[in-house]
Structure formats: C-alpha cells, structure tokens
Amino acid sequence: MRNEYLVGFLILIEPVVLVSVLVDLRFGFDSFTWARAGVFILLAAVLSALRAGFVDAGIDLLFFGGVLTVSAGWLCSGSDPALSAELFTLVNLVHFGAILLYGVYAKSVRRIHWLFALTMAQYALGYALALGADRNPLHVRLGLLTLHLLAFAMAHFLRYYFRRITEIAEARQVMNRRLESLVAEARATGTARLESFSHDIRSPITGILGVHDLLASTKLDAEQASYLNILERSNRLLLEIVESILDPEAMAPARGRSSMQELLDDVLAPYGATARAKGVSLRHRVIGNPAFPPLTRADAARIIGNLVDNALKYTDSGSVSVSARKPVDFSGVDITVSDTGAGMSRERLEAVRTGAAGADERVAGSHGLGLAGVRRLVENAGGVMLVDSESGRGTRVTIRFPLPDGRR
Questions:
Q1: Mean pLDDT on 385-398
Q2: Distance separating alpha carbons of residues 234 and 241, to the nearest angstrom
C-alpha cells in the first residue's frame, strides 16, 4: 500500500517538474534548471524501476539521487549569490522531507544514517565554498541542524511504527489463516457428526414405519385401525421434521404439494389422545381455500404443533381450536390457535409480545420451539405472530403470512 502511494505521488509530481523546466526554456536557463531536469529524468527512472519490480533499488535511487541532484544544483549556484540564497530554503525542505520519508521506505536503518550523513556533508561542502557563510548567521545554521536532527529522529520513529504495523498485519493474517483452518476443521467434524446422527435417527423412525406396515397387514378392529392411522401420520411427519433439520436445503416450500386441510389433519392427530385424556375438545377447520404458508411442510408442522402443545399444557377444560383462513383485507393466510385455558397476565403478555419472555415457571420441562422459536421461524419467512390473552380466559395466537396476489 505504501509503494502504491509513492508511485501515485511520483506520477503527480513529475509533470510539475517538467513544466518548471519548460518555463525556464522560455525565460532562460540558470544553474538550477539543470538540477530540475535531472530530477525529471530521475523520477522517470524511479518509476520504471518500481514498475519493473525493483522496489528497493528504485526507492534508494529516489532518495539518494534526489538529494544529490538538488544539492548539486545548489552548489552550482555559488556563482550567483542571489540565486543561491533563493534556493537555500527549497534545498533544506527537500533534505528534511527526504530524511523523514526515508524512515517509511528505507530497507534498513543504516540507509537512513547514510542519507543523513550525505545531507550533512553537502552542508559542510556548501559552507566550505562560502555559499552561505556570510548570509546565514550561526543561529540559522544551528536551527537547520536541529531541524534535520528532528527529521532523523522522526525517520527512526516512522520506521519502528510501520514495522510494528507490518508485524501486526502479518500476525493478523496468520491468525486469520489459522481461524479459517479451525472453521474448516469444525465444519468437517460437524458434517461428519451430522451425517452419523442423520443415519442414527432415521434408522429407528424407519423401523417404526416398517413395524407399522406389518401391523397394518394384520386383522384390526375400527378403533385399532384409527390409532394405527394416527401412528403412521405422526411418524411420517416426524421423519419430515428430522429431514428438514438435518438437510434444510433439500426441503423446498410445500406449496402445491400439500393442502392446509391435510397439514392440520396430520399435525393434530397425535394430540387427540392427550386432549381426550384431559377432557378438552380439540377441533380444527379450514375456511375457504387459503394459500399454504411460505414454509416447508416440516416447519409449518413444527410451528402449529408447538402452538397446539402449548395450548393443551395450559388448558384443563374447555377447548383448543385451530383454524386456517384467507384474511379479508389482503392475500395470504392466517393460522390461529386459540384455547380456553389459564391465559396470561398483562406483564407476561407484554413480555411475550416484545420477545423478552423467558420460560414460564408454571409449566416445567418444555422442550419445544417455544413462542420465541415460533416467532423466529415465522418472521424469517416474512410473517408476523400476533398474541392476545387474558388471565383465566385463554390465549389466542395468530401467525399471518401476507402473500402476493394470486400466489397459492
């Protein structure tokens, strides 16, 4: 990055130097014109070296060559005291900048020492030739020496600073490569475990389905056949849910492959026995022909099943009802689970609506999605979850999925 900035600066400054030489062609040469022409040639050579990949050589040529060229121009101006005085400030600025910036680009500290020594030698030669002995008092000379010593110290600081920055950047790259390696290893390990778990959990489910098929081939009365039908639906739905968790990319949204009526029949079948044991009426209905929500069949079953499970936990008498309908004012689907159970206090209802509710201490050991998990799945699919409840009078949860017109 530093080299890119340097190349950009040189490309910017080279035409400026060329213009100054062309101006002298119009108004007359002086001894420093040749120095500027030399600087132009030097910059072209440095750019060529940098572009050819000779970075260290190009940088050394720039700083040492620049200092020598400018110093030579000033020394050659000794025959013109007025011009020599005018160039004095410019030459000092060039030397100060060269020493300072060399701390950023020098390959070694020794090169900074050589450049500083070259600058001091140039001044000694200039004063020996009486280029500034009479014009520059002692305090000016001491000030210039202090200025260049400051540049020398700052060059060392910049070299240390950029070296530390480079070391940190290199350490970060090593850490990033190590992190990428660890992530890759974790993914590989996780994939292997997931594949093993997938095989392990599918095997018993497949075994249950096989036993179901064997049992279905035997002689059963009507009640046994109805229970067996519930068992089949539950196991096939369980297999879908497991596959959606283990391989979500392979599970496409179920629109067109399943109706809301079929979904509700399959989801509520396993809860019938629980409802009857508690003396609770479990009902469901589909009003009209609502669109299927933008979910996989397994996710839709998990959401509705979780809401029905929650409703039954809090309902000891009365009813739990599930309905699916097309909203009146827009295209989509509303799925509502309502109960006549214990309901919620105002404080808990507000916590549920804002997503801040924790586990309910009145019910122990829930391992389902929970309302937070339901909300997450619904909102990820572009829907909303609405909750209404009153303590002692039941709860009503509606999941709503707006869909584009005509989408079924």
A1: 90
A2: 10
Contact assessment for residue 87 and residue 74, using Cβ atoms and an 8 Å cutoff? yes
The CATH number covering residue 373 comes to 3.30.565.10
Q: Which domain holds residue 364?
A: 253-402
State the DSSP code for 367.
-
In the prediction, which pLDDT does 134 show?
Answer: 45
Top pLDDT among 285 and 158 is at 285
Q: Find the mean pLDDT for residues 199-227.
A: 75
204 vs 367 pLDDT, higher one: 204
Q: Is 408 within a domain?
A: no
Angstrom distance (rounded) from CA 65 to CA 41: 10
Which candidate, 371, 361, 362, places its Cα nearest to that of 397?
A: 371
Q: Which of 136, 161, 181 is the last residue of a domain?
A: 136
- Provide φ and ψ at 318, rounded to 5°: 95, -130
3-state SS class at 197 = helix
pLDDT band at 253 (very low <50, low <70, confident <90, very high): low
pLDDT at 291 over 60: yes
Backbone angles phi, psi at 394, to 5 degrees: 105, 175
Question: What confidence tier does 109 reach under pLDDT thresholds 50, 70, 90?
Answer: confident
Q: Mind giving me the DSSP string for 24-65?
A: HHHH---HHHHHHHHHHHHHHHHHHHHHTT-HHHHHHHHHHH
Q: Distance (Å, rounded) from C-alpha 98 to C-alpha 114? A: 12
Strand duo 318-325 + 280-287: pairing: parallel
Residues 267/304, Cβ–Cβ less than 8 Å:
yes
For residue 220, give every residue at least 6 positions away whose Cβ sits within 8 Å of its Cβ, in sequence order, or none: 228
Give the distance between the most distant pair of CA atoms in the chain: 126
d(CA 177, CA 161): 24
pLDDT in tens, 170-184: 888 888 888 888 888
Domain end marker among 136, 171, 199: 136
In a domain, residue 148? The reply is no
Residue 25 belongs to some domain of the structure: yes
Higher pLDDT, residue 255 or 322: 322
Closest CA to 120 of 138, 141, 103: 141
Residue 151 lies in a domain: no
Domain match, 129 and 260 both = no
Number of structural domains (the chain) is 2
**Alpha-helix residue ranges (DSSP H) falling in 355-393:** 370-380
